[in-house]
Design brief:
Elements lengths: L1 E3 L5 H11 L3 H8 L7 H9 L11 E6 L2 E10 L17 H8 L5 E8 L8 H16 L3 E7 L3 H9 L3 E7 L12 E8 L3
């Protein structure tokens, strides 16, 4: 079953989002650490927000027999993306910002994650199919997703759902990097055909 996320799903979303981001979210949240006792608490508070890309309002949960098996976070990108302040962003994020700007107006799959014990059971594909419906309802004509070049399983899944690589950017690794990928790939899917 796929359902909209709720505020009560915030802790689980934090785990899934960090899995999808190979630790990058934790590093970002660490830089935002204030009065919170943990970077996970920073992420949880962000997931509980009413607004912003990383909000429970932009997330859907795959529930399998009462257990959260996976999640998708997505939203429609602006029709015009302003990169005038890209130099102010950390170098790690600049390639991602550039790739997002290559898909203006698309419905952007920001996060797709499935817990390890639930992989290979069609949950990722079901979440992507659901995202197609949400995107179509927004009037988006394309879908987009960015992923690391070494994630071959993800690429097979996205290609099976009609996504095609349109461009790529070199990846700037974080200190905590554990992926070995050297590029980010942008894949786009046409919803009009």
């Amino acid at each position: 079953m796929i359902r909209p996320a709720t505020k009560q799903d915030a802790s689980e979303l934090v785990c899934l989002i960090d899995c999808a981001g190979y630790g990058m979210p934790l590093e970002v949240w660490n830089g935002m650490l204030g009065d919170e006792a943990s970077v996970l608490e920073v992420g949880r508070k962000r997931a509980m927000r009413e607004e912003g890309g990383f909000s429970y309002r932009n997330a859907w949960i795959a529930d399998r027999d009462g257990v959260i098996a996976g999640a998708l976070v997505g939203y429609r990108l602006d029709d015009e993306i302003d990169l005038s302040e890209i130099d102010d962003a950390p170098a790690t994020f600049r390639p991602l910002m550039e790739l997002e700007a290559e898909a203006p107006g698309s419905w952007y799959v920001n996060v797709l994650a499935v817990h390890g014990e639930h992989r290979g059971q069609g949950i990722g594909g079901a979440l992507l199919d659901y995202a197609d419906q949400v995107a179509t309802a927004t009037g988006a004509q394309t879908m987009s997703i960015i992923f690391e070049s070494e994630n071959r399983g993800a690429r097979r899944l996205y290609e099976s759902k009609g996504y095609q690589v349109t461009t790529r950017r070199p990846r700037v690794a974080l200190a905590t990097d554990r992926t070995g990928s050297d590029e980010w790939l942008l894949m786009v899917k046409d919803l009009t055909t």
